[in-house]
Design goal:
The complex is a heterodimer of chains A (447) and B (821). Chain A has helices at 22-27, 33-38, 42-52, 64-69, 95-101, 103-117, 131-146, 177-184, 213-225, 227-231, 264-270, 304-309, 328-342, 348-366, 373-384, 391-416, 433-439, and strands at residues 80-85, 121-126, 162-167, 208-212, 241-248, 254-259, 280-284, 293-294, 318-323. Chain A has 447 residues and is α/β, with parallel strands linked by helices. In chain A, the strands form two sheets. A five-stranded mixed beta sheet of chain A has the order 6-5-9-7-8, covered by helices on one side. In chain A, helix 5 (95-101) packs across helix 7 (131-146) and helix 15 (373-384) packs antiparallel against helix 16. The radius of gyration of chain A is 22 Å and the shape is globular. In chain A, 56% of the residues are buried. Chain B folds into five domains: 4-97, Ubiquitin-like (UB roll) (Roll); 132-274, Alpha-Beta Plaits; 290-351 and 511-676, Rossmann fold (3-Layer(aba) Sandwich); 358-506, Dimethylsulfoxide Reductase, domain 2; 707-805, Beta Barrel (Barwin-like endoglucanases), CATH 2.40.40.20. In chain B, 26% of the residues lie in helices and 19% in strands. Chain B has 24 helices and 35 strands. The longest helix of chain B is centred in the N-terminal third of the chain and has 16 residues, at 82-97. Chain B is globular. Classes of the chains: A alpha/beta (447), B alpha/beta (821). The structure holds flavin mononucleotide (FMN), iron/sulfur cluster (2 copies) and FE2/S2 (inorganic) cluster. Residues 152-158, 182, 202-204, 206-207 of chain B line the site of one iron/sulfur cluster.
Chain lengths: 447, 821
C-alpha cells in the first residue's frame, strides 16, 4: 500500500507499517498536535479552525469553526463531541481506511477538538459493519488511556477527555446527525426536529457537535500545525487537502488525497484514467446524493463553489465515474433502490415517493414504461425535494432529476425499445457481484 | 422585549404569543392548513409534511406544524401560494398511492381527514399504476383496538399519544421505509386505560374499535353532547346513537376538564344499557314467599312502595342511601323527599364507613374554592393523599402526568400506595392505611419551623415542606380512602400554604351529593343542620316547621336496620352487597329491613329487594353533574332507553304523590327552580382542628405479623356498569396484590409469586407485585376485582390480615386422577 498522493497531508502514515500502534504512531510525529493544543485556549483553537477555512467533510460542507462557535457553553450541562463514523453514502470510503490505518490520528483529533470545544466526553459512532475499524479504534483508545493521553488527566494537564466507541446497527439514516444522536441514545434512528439544534440540545439534551471523522482528524492537524499548514492546500473558499474516494470505471479506483481545487479530469487521470475502450460519460462528484455531472464538466475544479455553480455538490469526496457503456437509467435506479431501502419511513415524501419512484424505474427498465412516466418521475422528485424531513429524501431526487436533465434521451430510448439497452451498453442491473466484475473487465483491471 | 410576534399570513396581519406555531396562528385567522400528524396536545413531529406553507425569504417551504411564528414573517398558505398548494397536493398524492381507497367499507368514511382532503383538493385520477403495499388485516393491538396497517398514514399520533400523554409505551413504529408500520411488542401487551383515544385521533381508518367496527356510518349517527358517568372526572363526551341505541361514545373537547381525552371505561362502558341484566320493568316480591322479585306494572309497584313506606298511613322509620351517581337534580329531590316526605335525616350518599369527623371536613371543603384541573397543571408541587389516580379518576392521572412532563411538577404521595403514579413521584411519604393525617400535620408543622428548636420532622418531610413552600399555589388532592382527619389536615395545610385542596371521590357525582346535602348534618346549598338559622331557612323553603332531627350515617343506619329499628332501606342505585365492606352488617340489614331500590342493572342487592324500580342510565336522562373539582356540567339524553324505565326524580315525585304529599315540582325546570331557592350561601367553615395524636404515635409497631389491608377496586372491576362490554373487560389489569419488599422478603415471595391474604374467614390468592410504592406493613387488595369469588374476600379498608406465600406443589397440583375404564 503506497502513499496516496498526490498530496500527503491526512494520509501521511498510510504507508507506514503498523501505524495503528501507538509506538509507531508516535515515532511518526503522532501526539504532537495535542501538545500544542494544551498550550492554547479554546477560543484561540476555534479561531484557528475558522482561519483554516475547514469545512465539514461529512457531506454538507458547513464551516467547522463557525459550527463550534455555536455550541452553547456555560449551560451547566456537559458538552459532547460526537464523531460521525457511520460512513454509508454510496461511493464513500475515506473514513474507514483512515480509522483502519491511522486510528490514533482520529483519537488525537478528538482530544484536540474536545479541548477546543471544552468537552470532556466524546463518542465515536462507527458504522456497524466496520469490524476492523472497531478493533483498531478500540485498541488505539486503550493504548491512549494506558499512556494517560485519555482519561482524567490528559497529558498531565488536569483536563479530562474520555472516548466511548459505539457501533451502529447498519442504517444509512443513522449517519444523519440527529438520527445518529437518537440511535446513540438507544432509540430508533430517525431524524429529530430542528430547532433545537444539537449545538444547544444534542445528545441527552446537552450541547453537542457532530463531526465527520475526516473533519475531526483535520482539526487536530490544524491546531497542531497552524491554519496555514492546512490552507496551503486548496482555494480560498475551499481550503485544505481532501481524502478522495474514486470509484467506477477507472483503471485504479481507490483512495487518493488531493488539494481541493484539483480539476476532476486530473483526478480521473491520477486514478489511471478510464478503463480501456471507455469514455467518460457522467460522474457523481461527491457520492450518490450529489447530482450527476457529464463529461462536459470534467475540467471544473473540485471545490464547493464550482460544484454548486454546476448545479451539483461536493458531498463527501466520493467521485464515481461512469462511461458510455453504462446506462444512466440503470445506475440511477440502483441508487433509487438504495435510498428507498434506507428511508427511515418517518416522512411521507421520502417514504412514499421513494417507493413509487423505484416502481416507475422498474417499469421503464422492464419495458412497461409509458410516455408520461418521465414527467411523472420529475414530478415525484419535485414533490420530495425540499419537502422531506431530512436530506435523505432530497438525496433520492438528485440522481433522478439530474439524469433526466442531462440524459432524457436515454430514458426515451428505453421507452421506445421496451426496456432494451442500446447495444453498446452493458446491463449492470441484475448482475451478481462476480458477473459485474467480469462484464466490466474490472477483474482483469486488477481490482 | 416583547412576548408577542406580528406576522402576515395570506396578507392578513396577526399578533400571536412567541412560540406559537404557524398552524395555530393561521387557525386564529380562520385558515385551516391541512394536516395529519399535527395534534394540538402532542409534541410536533413534522412527519406527514401535509401542512407545508411558503415563508418569504426562507430557503425551503416550511411545515406549519413545526415552525414557530417569527416577527415580520410573510407567510403564504395554499390559499395564496402555488408552492404551498402544489406541495400539499403532492403530499396528498403520496399518501394516497398506498392507501387502499376502501372508503365504502371503512369505519372512518364520512369523518376521515384523508377522505375530506382528497375530496377537497385531491386529484380525481390517480397517477399511480403500480403495486400497493399489502398487509394482513386487521391486527389486534388490544382486545379493544384493531389496526389495518394498509390504511395507516404513519402520522405517529397513536404512538405519540401513548408515549407522551398516557405513558403506555407498548405501541410503537417498527421497521423503516415503505415498510414502516405501527406495531406492538410481541411479548408485552399494549395495556392502556386510554386506548380509545388513539382510535379517535387516528386521522384515517387504520385504528378501529372492536365495539364499533362495521356498526354504523358517522352520518347515520345522532350525536348528543354528554358528561361521562364513569367517575368523578367529569369528562365531556359525545354519545352517538343509531335507531335509539348507543353505538359509540367519543371524547368531546373540553380543555378545562378532559382536554380531548376519555378513558376506556367511560368510552366503551355503555354495554349495560342493553345488557340482558338491564332492568326494564318494575319488580315486586310477592309477600313473604322469599323468592326473587318478579315483574310487575308500575301501578302495582308504586302501590306496593306506598304500603311498605306507610303501611298504616304513617311513614315507618326509613333511611335513604343515595349512592354517588345521582345527578344534582335527582340528588336534591332525594334529599327533599327524605326530609319532607319520609321525615328522616337518615340519608347518606357514601357506601363506605366514613369517620365521624368527615362531615365537618366535607362541609368545610364544599364552601371553599377548591382545586381544579388547571390548578393541578400549574401547581408545580402536587401532594396526593390516599389516592391512586389512574385507577380511581383516570383523567386526573393524565393531567398529573401532563404537569409532570410539561412543567416538571414535583409529585408527592402520602398514604399506603399510589399505584401507577409511583413512576412519576418525586418523593413518597408512606403511611399505614388511613394514617395520612399525621404526616400532613407533620408537614404543616415543618412549614413554620424556624430552623431553631430541634427539628422533629424527618428529613423527607422537611424536604417536601420546603418544596411546597417554594411554589405559589401547591395543590393537595385527597382521595376518598384517606383516613380519619386527612381531609381536614390537607385543608389546613393548603390554607397555610396559600394553596388549594380538593377532595377526589370516585363516584361521578359524590361531590354533587355533598352539595345537595345528602349526608346527615348537611343540607342543600352548603347549609348545616346544626346551624339554627340555616336549618330554619331550609325548613321554610320546604314548607316545614322544623326539619327532622339530625340523622345517622351509613354504619349506624345499617346497624339500626339490622336491629329492626329502621324498617325500610330506600336505595337509589346502591348495591350494598358489592359496595359495602362489612358483609355481616349488610346481610343482617337486608334480612331485617324491607328494601326498595332504584337501579339500572340487576345486581346482588336487587335480588334481595322487595321492590325494584328500573331507572334510566346516564345516557338516557338529562341533568347536571358536579365533578371532583366542584364543576357543574349539564347533560342531555342521547337515547330514550327502554320504554318502562323512569328517572329517579320522576319516581320520587310519584311516590310522594301516593303518600299524599307534594314536592312542588313535576319537571326538571321545576326542580331547578326549587333548588335555586336554596342556592349556596356564602360560608367558609373552619377546618376541623387537628386531633391530638401524642399517645397513638408510639404504638406504631404492634409486633404481630399482620398487615393492614389497603383495599380499593381497580378501574375495571366486576362493576355492574361494565357488563356486556367484553372487549373492555379484556383490557382490565390483572388482579394482583402488592407488598413492600420488606414484607415480601420474610415470606420469601418475589414479584409474580402467588400469595394468599387472609382476614377473618375470608381468603384470597393472587399474584403479588413487590414494590416500594406499597407502604411497609400494608398489602394492597383489589376490591370487587375480576378475580373469581371476590365477594367473600377481605375487603375492609384497614382490616388486619395475614399474608402467606402459596406453598409450591399446592393442593391442586399432582392430584391423582381416576380414569373410568
Ligand atoms: C441521510 C444522511 C446520511 C449521512 N451520513 C453521514 C455519514 O455517514 N457520515 C458523516 O460524517 N456524515 C453524514 N451525514 C451528514 C451529517 O448529517 C452531518 O452533516 C455531518 O456528520 C456533520 O459533520 P461535518 O460538519 O464534520 O461534515 C449524513 C447526512 C444525511 C442527511
Ligand atoms: S427524508 Fe423523511 S423518511 Fe426519508 S430518511 Fe429523512 S426523515 Fe426519514
Ligand atoms: S395508526 Fe393512525 S394514528 Fe397511528 S400512525 Fe397510523 S394513521 Fe397515525
Ligand atoms: S401536519 Fe405538519 S407535518 Fe404533518
Amino acid at each position: 500500500m503506497g502513499t496516496l498522493g498526490p498530496v500527503t497531508a491526512l494520509s501521511t502514515r498510510y504507508d507506514v507499517d503498523r501505524a495503528w500502534d501507538i509506538d509507531v504512531y508516535e515515532d511518526h510525529g503522532g501526539y504532537q498536535n495535542v501538545r500544542a493544543a494544551l498550550d492554547s485556549t479554546p477560543d484561540d483553537m476555534i479561531q484557528m479552525i475558522k482561519d483554516s477555512g475547514l469545512r465539514g467533510r461529512g457531506g454538507a460542507g458547513f464551516p467547522t469553526g463557525l459550527k463550534w462557535s455555536f455550541i452553547a457553553q456555560d449551560t451547566g450541562k456537559p458538552v459532547y463531541l460526537v464523531v460521525n463514523a457511520d460512513e454509508s453514502e454510496p461511493g464513500t470510503f475515506k473514513d474507514r481506511p483512515l480509522m483502519e490505518r491511522d486510528p490514533h490520528s482520529l483519537v488525537e483529533g478528538i482530544i484536540v477538538s474536545c479541548l477546543a470545544i471544552q468537552s470532556e466526553m466524546a463518542y465515536i459512532y462507527a458504522r456497524g459493519e466496520f469490524g476492523l475499524v472497531s478493533r483498531r479504534l478500540r485498541h488505539a483508545i486503550e493504548q491512549a488511556y494506558e499512556r494517560g493521553y485519555l482519561g482524567a488527566d490528559v497529558f498531565g494537564s488536569g483536563k479530562r477527555v474520555d472516548i466511548t466507541l459505539h457501533r451502529g446497527a447498519a442504517a444509512y439514516i443513522c449517519g444523519e446527525e440527529t438520527a445518529l444522536l437518537d440511535s446513540l441514545e438507544g432509540r430508533r434512528g430517525q431524524p429529530r426536529l430542528r430547532p433545537p439544534f444539537p449545538a444547544t440540545h444534542g445528545l441527552y439534551g446537552c450541547p453537542t457537535t457532530v463531526n465527520n471523522v475526516e473533519t475531526v482528524t483535520a482539526a487536530g492537524y490544524i491546531v497542531g500545525q497552524g491554519p496555514e499548514w492546512f490552507n496551503q492546500y486548496g482555494t480560498e473558499k475551499s481550503a485544505g487537502p481532501k481524502l478522495m474516494c474514486i470509484s467506477g470505471e477507472v483503471k485504479r479506483p481507490g483512495n487518493y488525497e488531493f488539494a481541493l481545487g484539483t480539476p476532476v479530469s486530473e483526478m480521473i487521470a491520477a486514478a489511471g484514467g478510464m478503463l480501456d475502450d471507455r469514455e467518460l460519460k457522467f460522474f457523481f462528484p461527491g457520492g450518490s446524493s450529489t447530482p450527476i455531472l457529464t463529461a462536459e464538466h470534467a475540467d471544473i475544479p473540485y471545490t464547493f463553489e464550482a460544484m454548486t455553480e454546476a448545479d451539483s455538490l461536493l458531498g463527501t469526496g466520493a467521485l464515481m465515474v461512469h462511461s458510455d457503456k453504462t446506462s444512466v437509467v440503470e445506475t440511477v435506479y440502483r441508487y433509487v433502490k438504495f435510498y428507498e431501502h434506507e428511508s427511515c419511513g418517518k416522512c411521507t415524501p421520502c417514504r412514499e415517493g421513494g417507493y413509487w419512484t423505484a416502481q416507475v424505474y422498474e417499469r421503464i427498465l422492464d419495458g412497461r414504461g409509458r410516455a408520461e412516466d418521465l414527467d411523472l418521475l420529475a414530478d415525484i422528485s419535485n414533490n420530495i425535494f425540499g419537502r422531506s424531513f431530512c436530506a435523505l429524501g432530497d438525496a433520492l431526487t438528485s440522481p433522478v432529476l439530474s439524469s433526466l436533465e442531462h440524459f432524457r434521451d436515454e430514458y426515451e430510448y428505453l421507452l421506445r425499445s421496451a426496456g432494451r439497452l442500446p447495444d453498446h451498453m452493458q446491463s449492470v442491473r441484475t448482475a451478481t457481484a462476480n458477473e459485474y466484475l467480469e462484464r466490466n473487465d474490472l477483474a482483469t483491471a486488477g481490482v | 422585549m416583547t412576548d408577542t410576534v406580528t406576522l402576515t399570513i395570506d396578507g392578513k396581519e396577526i399578533t400571536v404569543p412567541k412560540g406559537t406555531l404557524l398552524i395555530r396562528a393561521a387557525e386564529q385567522l380562520g385558515t385551516i392548513i391541512p394536516r395529519f400528524c399535527d395534534h394540538p396536545l402532542l409534541d410536533p413531529v413534522g412527519a406527514c409534511r401535509q401542512c407545508i406553507v411558503e415563508v418569504e425569504g426562507q430557503r425551503k417551504p416550511m411545515t406549519a406544524c413545526t415552525t414557530e411564528a417569527a416577527d415580520g414573517w410573510v407567510v403564504n398558505t395554499h390559499l395564496t401560494s402555488d408552492v404551498a398548494r402544489t406541495a400539499q397536493e403532492g403530499q396528498l398524492e403520496f399518501l394516497l398511492i398506498n392507501h387502499p381507497l376502501d372508503c365504502p367499507m371503512c369505519d372512518k368514511g364520512g369523518e376521515c381527514p384523508l377522505q375530506d382532503q382528497a375530496m377537497a383538493h385531491g386529484n380525481h385520477h390517480s397517477r399511480f399504476v403500480d403495486e400497493k403495499r399489502k398487509y394482513d388485516k386487521p391486527v389486534a393491538v388490544s382486545a379493544q383496538v384493531l389496526l389495518d396497517r394498509e390504511r395507516c398514514v404513519l402520522c405517529a399520533r397513536c404512538t405519540r399519544f401513548s408515549d407522551q400523554v398516557s405513558g403506555d409505551p407498548f405501541i410503537e413504529l417498527f421497521e423503516r421505509g415503505a415498510l414502516e408500520q405501527v406495531a406492538i411488542y410481541e411479548d408485552e401487551p399494549y395495556e392502556s386505560y386510554f386506548s380509545g383515544n388513539v382510535i379517535q385521533i387516528c386521522p384515517v381508518g387504520a385504528l378501529t374499535s372492536t365495539s364499533y367496527r362495521f356498526k354504523a356510518r358517522p352520518f347515520d349517527l345522532r350525536s348528543t353532547p354528554s358528561v361521562c358517568d364513569g367517575c368523578s372526572a367529569g369528562c365531556s363526551q359525545t354519545v352517538q346513537a343509531r335507531r335509539g341505541q348507543v353505538e359509540r361514545q367519543l371524547a368531546r373537547t373540553n380543555m378545562a376538564v378532559n382536554e380531548m381525552w376519555n378513558c376506556d371505561k367511560g368510552r366503551f362502558g355503555y354495554g349495560h344499557l342493553t345488557a340482558d341484566t338491564r332492568l326494564t320493568s318494575p319488580l315486586v316480591r310477592s309477600d313473604d314467599d322469599g323468592e326473587e322479585p318478579v315483574a310487575a306494572d308500575w301501578a302495582t309497584a308504586l302501590t306496593r312502595v306506598r304500603s311498605i313506606l306507610a303501611p298504616d298511613g304513617e311513614v315507618v322509620p326509613t333511611a335513604v342511601l343515595s349512592g354517588g351517581r345521582l345527578p344534582d337534580e335527582d340528588a336534591y329531590v332525594a334529599g327533599k323527599f327524605a326530609r319532607t316526605v319520609l321525615g328522616t335525616d337518615d340519608v347518606d350518599f357514601r357506601t363506605r364507613f366514613a369517620p365521624a369527623s368527615e362531615g365537618d371536613a366535607l362541609a368545610a371543603l364544599a364552601g371553599r374554592d377548591t382545586a381544579t384541573y388547571d390548578d393541578v397543571e400549574q401547581a408545580g408541587v402536587v401532594l396526593t393523599v390516599g389516592l391512586d389516580p389512574e385507577e380511581e379518576v383516570p383523567i386526573l392521572y393524565l393531567r398529573l402526568r401532563k404537569a409532570w412532563r410539561n412543567t416538571k411538577a414535583r409529585l408527592v404521595s402520602v398514604g399506603a400506595s399510589s399505584g401507577s403514579l409511583a413512576e412519576l413521584l418525586w418523593r413518597r411519604l408512606p403511611t399505614d392505611v388511613g394514617a395520612e393525617a399525621a404526616v400532613l400535620d407533620d408537614l404543616a408543622r415543618a412549614l413554620d419551623r424556624d430552623g431553631d428548636d430541634a427539628d422533629q420532622s424527618s428529613p423527607m418531610v422537611a424536604e417536601v415542606a420546603d418544596a411546597l413552600g417554594s411554589v405559589d399555589r401547591p395543590v393537595v388532592l385527597v382521595g376518598e380512602r384517606a383516613g380519619d382527619g386527612a381531609l381536614a389536615a390537607a385543608g389546613r395545610l393548603a390554607d397555610a400554604l396559600g394553596g388549594k385542596v380538593a377532595w377526589v371521590p370516585r363516584r361521578s357525582n359524590a361531590r354533587g351529593a355533598l352539595d345537595q346535602g345528602l349526608a346527615a348534618g348537611l343540607l342543600p346549598g352548603l347549609r348545616r343542620h346544626d346551624d339554627d338559622t340555616q336549618r330554619a331557612e331550609v325548613a321554610a323553603a320546604w314548607g316545614l316547621d322544623e326539619l327532622p332531627t339530625r340523622g345517622r350515617d351509613l354504619h349506624e343506619i345499617l346497624t339500626l336496620a339490622g336491629k329492626g329499628k329502621i324498617k325500610v332501606l330506600y336505595l337509589l342505585g346502591v348495591d350494598l352487597v358489592r359496595d359495602v365492606a362489612d358483609q355481616r352488617l349488610v346481610d343482617k340489614a337486608l334480612r331485617r329491613a324491607t328494601v326498595i331500590t332504584h337501579d339500572i342493572v340487576a345486581n346482588a342487592t336487587t335480588a334481595h329487594a322487595d321492590v325494584v324500580l328500573p331507572v334510566t342510565a346516564s345516557q338516557e336522562r338529562a341533568g347536571t353533574r358536579t365533578n371532583w373539582e366542584g364543576r357543574r356540567q349539564q347533560f342531555r339524553p342521547g337515547v330514550a332507553g327502554p320504554q318502562l324505565v323512569q328517572h329517579d326524580w320522576e319516581i320520587l315525585v310519584q311516590v310522594t304523590g301516593m303518600l299524599g304529599h307534594d314536592l312542588g315540582f313535576t319537571d326538571l325546570d321545576g326542580i331547578r327552580a326549587d333548588m335555586a331557592a336554596l342556592a349556596p350561601i356564602d360560608t367558609t367553615p373552619d377546618w376541623p382542628a387537628a386531633a391530638d395524636r401524642s399517645d397513638t404515635a408510639a404504638a406504631a409497631d404492634d409486633g404481630d405479623d399482620t398487615l393492614t389491608a389497603d383495599v380499593y377496586p381497580l378501574l375495571l372491576d366486576n362493576g355492574v356498569h361494565q357488563v356486556n362490554a367484553p372487549d373492555l373487560a379484556a383490557t382490565a389489569h390483572d388482579p394482583h396484590l402488592r407488598l413492600h419488599p420488606d414484607d415480601a422478603a420474610p415470606l420469601g415471595v418475589s414479584d409474580g409469586d402467588e400469595v394468599t391474604v387472609t382476614g377473618g374467614k375470608a381468603e384470597l390468592t393472587l399474584p403479588v407485585r413487590v414494590t416500594p410504592d406499597q407502604a411497609a406493613g400494608t398489602v394492597f387488595v383489589p376490591a370487587n376485582s375480576t378475580a373469581p369469588d371476590q365477594v367473600d374476600n377481605p375487603r375492609h379498608l384497614g382490616d388486619r390480615v395475614t399474608v402467606a406465600a402459596v406453598a409450591s406443589g399446592s393442593a391442586t397440583a399432582d392430584q391423582p386422577v381416576e380414569v373410568n375404564a
